[in-house]
């Protein structure tokens, strides 16, 4: 299905990722991992602000008391947008200088779920961590290559997870009280010609919207049947992540990347690295706030 109401925000990220909507601020946030840039876009006024960090900035999440939680290299920090104060919370894989955080989400209980990868993309080098209010990172999944998209069902009983090179969306049982997960099945297998699954969001109909890196779009998958039900076509090859925002959470913000594109590709796809907004008929859920 073509979605004609596509708006481009020219942000020219090298590796745009991790979009987040914070309703209280009326703002979308996203990161440019390699450049260490944090973008804040006020939807109503269309004002875009950028903050720079001398790190690989992988993740932005909503914390307590108006603070942001950022994944800088392998450290989680609390960041105050107003004062620009940074407070270190915890670190993972301190003895692996080539590793960094990748995608992160917060569950309904406020626990942070965040994965790692090797910047050399070594197979099996990454892990998925769960970080609760005690700030002790606990490994949930090991031997991951590119720990990526995560989503929960509305009833919190099911957790979906993507390890990008596998081209699969895995389904796990999820225990809300403890945050314990158990592998159930492969919910979706992505055909090779559609690229690699990256970031992911669930909608109010229980479908999964998945950014396809090398697949020029965001694809809507039915995790019950494993079938493709819709697609947002984009004028760039490397689509990295998506999230729902806006007043009714029916505006999707989509991040993209310039990495792994030759000079000639960038000429052909000049909007690579930009961010796109699209109004959808179905909405998504409010992002959860971390308990820290």
Structural notes for this entry:
The chain has 292 residues and is mostly beta strands. It has one domain (6-279): 6 Propeller (Neuraminidase). Helix content is 2%, strand content 53%. It has one helix at 263-268; strands at 6-9, 16-22, 27-32, 37-42, 47-52, 57-62, 68-72, 75-79, 86-91, 99-106, 112-118, 126-131, 137-144, 147-152, 158-163, 168-175, 180-189, 196-202, 208-213, 217-222, 227-233, 239-245, 251-256, 275-279. The model has no long low-confidence stretch (mean pLDDT 97). Belongs to the SMP-30/CGR1 family. InterPro entries: 6-blade_b-propeller_TolB-like, SGL, SMP-30. The active site is at 198 (proton donor/acceptor). Keywords: Metal-binding, Zinc.
**What is the number of strand segments?**
24
The CATH top-level class label = Mainly Beta
Write the CATH homologous superfamily.
Answer: TolB, C-terminal domain
- CATH topology category name: Neuraminidase
Distance between the termini: 40 Å
Low-confidence parts, pLDDT < 50 over ≥5 residues?
A: none
Please state the CA-atom Rg, rounded to the nearest Å.
Answer: 17 Å
The helix-strand sequence is EEEEEEEEEEEEEEEEEEEEEEEHE
Strand order, largest beta sheet: 1-24-23-22
**Helical residue percent band:** under 10%
Number of helices: 1
Q: Which band does the percent of strand residues land in? A: over 45%
CATH architecture: 6 Propeller
The pLDDT mean sits at 97
In the residues, how many domains can be counted?
1
Global outline: globular
Major sheet attributes: 4 strands, antiparallel
Q: What structural class do you assign from the helix and strand content?
A: mainly beta
């Amino acid at each position: 299905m073509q979605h004609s109401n596509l708006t481009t925000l020219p942000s020219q990220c090298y590796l745009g990722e991790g979009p987040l909507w914070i309703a209280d601020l009326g703002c979308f946030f996203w990161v440019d991992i390699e450049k260490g840039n944090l973008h804040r876009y006020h939807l109503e006024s269309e004002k875009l602000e950028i903050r720079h960090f001398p790190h690989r900035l992988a993740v932005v999440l909503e914390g307590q008391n108006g603070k942001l939680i950022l994944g800088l290299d392998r450290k989680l920090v609390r960041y105050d947008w107003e004062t620009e104060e940074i407070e270190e919370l915890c670190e993972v894989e301190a003895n692996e200088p080539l590793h960094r955080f990748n995608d992160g989400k917060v569950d309904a209980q406020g626990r942070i779920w965040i994965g790692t990868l090797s910047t050399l993309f070594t197979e099996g080098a990454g892990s998925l961590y769960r970080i609760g209010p005690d700030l002790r990172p606990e490994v949930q999944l090991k031997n991951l290559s590119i720990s990526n998209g995560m989503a929960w069902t509305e009833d919190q009983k099911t957790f979906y997870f993507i390890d990008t090179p596998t081209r699969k969306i895995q389904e796990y049982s999820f225990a809300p009280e403890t945050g314990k997960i158990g592998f159930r099945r492969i919910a979706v297998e992505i055909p090779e010609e559609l690229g690699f699954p990256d970031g992911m969001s669930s909608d109010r109909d229980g479908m999964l919207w998945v950014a396809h890196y090398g697949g020029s779009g965001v694809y809507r998958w039915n995790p019950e049947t494993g079938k493709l039900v819709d697609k947002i076509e984009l004028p760039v090859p490397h689509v990295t992540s998506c999230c729902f925002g806006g007043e009714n959470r029916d505006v999707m913000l989509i991040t993209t990347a310039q990495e792994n594109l030759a000079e000639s590709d960038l000429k052909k796809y000049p909007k690579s690295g930009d961010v796109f907004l699209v109004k959808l008929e179905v909405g998504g859920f409010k992002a959860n706030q971390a308990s820290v």
